[in-house]
Write a structure and sequence with these properties.
single chain, about 675 residues, alpha/beta, about 20% strand
C-alpha cells in the first residue's frame, strides 16, 4: 500500500458485508424497504429522517422488547428536544443485560501490574452489593453519588450501582487538585463520596487521603464516604474528622441480601453529570439522561466504531475525560472493557502498546498527542510488541499530523483501521468519526456520524463545502444535555451552544466538510484549552495565578500547531512591574500544578505589559490564539473594540517567526521576558 498517495486503509469483504453498519443497512432494507447504495446515502437519511433512523436503531438493538414508547421525537426544538416519551430505560440494566460466560466484562490493570479479569456474573454481584449499600445510605432518585476515583473496576461498579438505584453519578479524577474538584462537586451536591485512597501514575504513588478529608470539609451535603482501599489496605480510622459524616470501607461491604433491582426510570431521567472546562467561569455541569446515552452509545460504538461483543476495548484515559464514559458504553455491546490505571508512557513511551499486548486488546483508544510522542521517540511498536489482535485504533483529542497517520501504518500496525473521531463532553459521543464502509485518508476524519446533522457554516449561517467554517449540528441528538446544573431557566445552556445561531448547535470547532463527506477539524473556534484531549478551563488557571501577590493579571491560550503539537503559553502582568524571574516562574508553575493538575502547567510563562480585553471586560483569548496561529491582527479584532489594542501587535511580533513546534516552547533566551 502506498501511504504517500493512496488510502491508508480500505474496507475488505468482512467490513463491506459483515460489519455492524453493513448488517444494519441490510436490516433496514429488509424491514423498512429502504435501500441505500453507500454510506453517504445512509447518512443523509439518518440525519434528515430522525424518527425513521432512531426508531431503526431502537429496533436493531432490541430495545423494542424492553420498553414501548409513544413516539420517537415529540419536540425537535433545540434546545429542548423531547425523545422517546413513554419509554423507560435504565443504563445499568442495559449494560448488565449483555452478560455472557464467553468472556469477562472487565479487565483491570494497574501500572506495573498484571491484568485482573472480572466476569459478568461477578460484576453483577458487585453492582448489587454497592447498590444495596447506597440504598442503606438513603440514596435514591434525585440524589447524587460522586466519585473521586482513578480508572478502576470499582469506578465502573459504582457508576452502574448509582444508575441502578436511579441516582445521578459524577466523577473527578484524583489527579485534579482540591479546588478544581470542589468547583465541580459543590454544584452536584453529593450525599455520598466514593473515594480511592490513592493512585499510581508515571512510576509514582499518590496518597489522596488528605485530599479526601479536604473535599469532605468543602462539601456540606456529604453524609457518607465509601473508602476504596486501592493502595493502602482497609482504613483503620476515618479519613475525615467532620461531624455527621459516616465512613464505609469498600472491601468490607456486606453482600446484598436481595436480588439487584433497577430503578424504573423514564427515558430522560438524569444519568450522570459531565463537566465543561470552566473557560468562562465555574465549570458547567452537563446532565445527560439514561435513554439518550443508551441509544447514542449503541449507535456510535456499534454502527460507527464497529464494536462487537467479542472485542476487548481499551481507552487510555482518566475518569475526568468523557471517553471514560464512552469506554464504559462498551458494556452495552457485551464487549470486554479494559481499565488501565496508569500512565501510557510508563515505563517508557510504549506503555500503551505494552498494555494492549498484555490484555489482548482488539480496539484501542488514545489521544493524538500520545501517538505523536511515540512517533517522535523513534520506536517501532510493530517490531517490539505482538499487536496482531489489534484491529482498530481510535484517535481523538486533537488533530493528528499527516506524518503520524502514515507512521501508524508503517510502524505501529500495518493492517489496523485508524478511526479519527471528533465529538465531545457535550454529547458524550462522536459527531464525526469512522465507518467500516469507507477508506481512511491522511488527515481526514472519515465521515459525519450517523444521525448527526453535521455541517460547516460561515458567519452568516450559510453552509460550506470544501471551506473552513463553524462546526454546527442542525438537528437534535438523543444524548444532548437535558440541562445544566443550577441553570433553571436554561440561560447557561443556550449561551453555551445556541448564542451564535439560534436553534442551531454551534460546537466551537473550525471544520471543513469535503464533497466526499470526509471531515477536517482545525481546532477550537472558542477559547477552551484542549491539552492531550482533556478540556481545561482558562478560568481555573486565572483563579490560581492571579491569587499570587506578584501577579496582577494574566492570559492563557492553547494553540494547535501545524505539526500536530499543542502550545500553551501563559502571559502575566506582574504587580508594580516586578521582574518575572525563574524563581517567580517556578512559583507560578508549582501553584498551578498543586491546585489544578500537571496538565494545567503552561509550556512557557511570559511577562507582558497588559492584557487586552473587550470593552465589556472579557479577555481576548480567541483573538490572541488566532494571532499566534498566524492570523493578521486586523482579521481578528478591531482596535476600537478593545482596551490595550497595542498588545495585539505585540502578540503578532511574539508569534512571528518564532512560534515553537510540538508545544515544546523555545528556550528562555528566545522569549521576550
Amino acid at each position: 500500500m502506498n501511504t504517500e498517495t493512496g488510502p491508508l486503509w480500505s474496507p475488505g469483504r468482512r467490513e463491506l458485508e459483515d460489519s455492524n453498519v453493513a448488517c444494519f443497512m441490510d436490516w433496514v432494507s429488509e424491514t423498512r424497504g429502504l435501500h441505500f447504495s453507500d454510506y453517504a446515502a445512509l447518512w443523509r437519511w439518518s440525519s434528515t429522517d430522525l424518527p425513521g433512523f432512531w426508531s431503526a436503531v431502537w429496533e436493531f438493538y432490541g430495545l423494542d422488547s424492553v420498553t414501548r414508547y409513544d413516539e420517537v421525537l415529540s419536540d425537535a426544538s433545540m434546545p429542548g428536544a423531547h425523545w422517546f416519551p413513554g419509554a423507560r430505560l435504565n443504563f445499568a440494566e442495559r449494560c448488565l443485560a449483555q452478560a455472557t460466560d464467553a468472556h469477562p466484562a472487565l479487565v483491570g490493570l494497574a501500572e506495573g501490574g498484571t491484568p485482573v479479569e472480572t466476569s459478568w456474573q461477578e460484576l453483577h454481584r458487585q453492582v448489587a452489593d454497592v447498590a444495596a449499600a447506597l440504598r442503606r445510605m438513603g440514596v435514591g432518585p434525585g440524589d447524587c453519588v460522586a466519585g473521586y476515583l482513578p480508572n478502576l473496576p470499582q469506578t465502573v461498579v459504582t457508576l452502574l450501582a448509582t444508575a441502578a438505584v436511579g441516582a445521578v453519578w459524577t466523577v473527578c479524577s484524583p489527579d485534579f487538585g482540591t479546588p478544581s474538584v470542589l468547583a465541580r462537586l459543590r454544584q452536584a451536591r453529593p450525599s455520598v463520596l466514593v473515594a480511592a485512597d490513592g493512585y499510581r501514575h508515571g512510576g509514582r504513588t499518590y496518597d489522596r487521603r488528605q485530599a479526601v478529608a479536604e473535599l469532605a470539609d468543602g462539601l456540606p451535603t456529604l453524609r457518607h464516604i465509601l473508602a476504596v482501599d486501592n493502595l493502602f489496605g482497609a482504613p483503620t480510622q476515618p479519613w475525615s474528622a467532620r461531624l455527621g459524616l459516616e465512613q464505609h470501607t469498600w472491601s468490607a461491604l456486606p453482600a446484598a441480601e436481595a436480588p439487584l433491582e433497577f430503578a424504573d426510570v423514564p427515558f430522560d431521567h438524569p444519568l450522570w453529570i459531565l463537566w465543561s472546562s470552566g473557560t468562562t467561569g465555574i465549570p458547567k455541569g452537563i446532565v445527560q439522561g439514561h435513554g439518550g446515552i443508551v441509544v447514542e452509545l449503541l449507535k456510535a460504538l456499534g454502527l460507527g466504531a464497529d464494536l462487537r461483543s467479542d472485542d476487548r476495548y481499551l481507552f487510555l484515559t482518566s475518569t475526568s475525560w468523557m471517553v471514560w464514559n464512552f469506554l464504559v458504553g462498551g458494556l452495552l455491546h457485551g464487549s470486554t472493557i479494559i481499565l488501565y490505571d496508569g500512565s501510557p508512557t510508563f515505563p517508557d513511551v510504549n506503555g500503551a502498546w505494552r498494555v494492549a499486548e498484555q490484555t489482548g486488546a482488539t480496539m484501542v483508544g488514545v489521544g493524538a498527542a500520545y501517538l505523536t510522542a511515540v512517533e517522535k521517540s523513534g520506536t517501532r511498536p510493530a517490531a517490539e510488541f505482538d499487536l496482531r489482535r489489534l484491529r482498530s485504533l481510535l484517535q481523538t483529542g486533537s488533530s493528528l499530523p499527516p506524518g503520524t497517520w502514515r507512521w501508524v501504518y508503517e510502524h505501529l500496525s500495518p493492517g489496523v483501521w485508524l478511526q479519527s473521531i471528533c465529538g465531545g463532553t457535550d454529547v458524550c459521543s462522536v459527531l464525526a468519526g469512522g465507518s467500516a464502509l469507507l477508506p481512511v485518508q491522511v488527515g481526514r476524519i472519515q465521515c459525519p456520524a450517523l444521525g448527526v446533522a453535521l455541517a460547516s457554516w460561515d458567519a452568516d449561517g450559510l453552509p460550506l463545502t470544501g471551506e473552513q467554517g463553524e462546526l454546527v449540528v442542525t438537528a437534535p441528538l438523543p444524548s444532548m444535555p437535558l440541562h445544566f446544573v443550577d441553570d433553571p431557566d436554561g440561560t447557561r445552556y443556550r449561551d453555551a451552544y445556541f448564542d451564535v445561531f439560534p436553534g442551531i448547535w454551534r460546537h466551537g470547532d473550525w471544520v471543513t466538510i469535503e464533497s466526499d463527506l470526509s471531515v477536517v477539524v482545525a481546532g477550537r473556534s472558542d477559547s477552551t484549552l484542549n491539552r492531550q484531549g482533556v478540556r481545561m478551563g482558562s478560568a481555573d488557571i486565572y483563579d490560581v495565578v492571579e491569587q499570587l501577590p506578584e501577579v496582577s493579571d494574566s492570559l492563557v491560550v492553547g494553540v494547535e500547531l501545524p505539526d500536530g503539537g499543542y502550545f500553551m503559553p501563559l502571559f502575566v502582568v506582574t504587580t508594580d512591574g516586578v521582574a518575572l524571574d525563574d524563581v517567580l516562574r517556578e512559583q507560578i508553575a508549582l501553584a498551578v500544578r498543586r491546585r489544578l493538575s500537571p496538565r494545567h502547567v503552561p509550556d512557557v510563562i511570559v511577562q507582558i505589559p497588559a492584557v487586552p480585553r473587550t470593552l465589556t471586560g472579557k479577555k481576548l483569548e480567541v483573538p490572541v490564539k488566532r494571532i499566534l496561529q498566524g492570523s493578521a491582527v486586523a482579521d481578528v479584532s478591531s482596535a476600537g473594540a478593545v482596551t490595550h489594542s497595542e498588545m495585539l501587535a505585540w502578540f503578532a511580533d511574539f508569534a512571528d517567526p518564532r512560534l515553537p513546534t510540538a508545544g515544546a516552547g523555545l528556550p528562555p533566551s528566545g522569549r521576550r521576558q
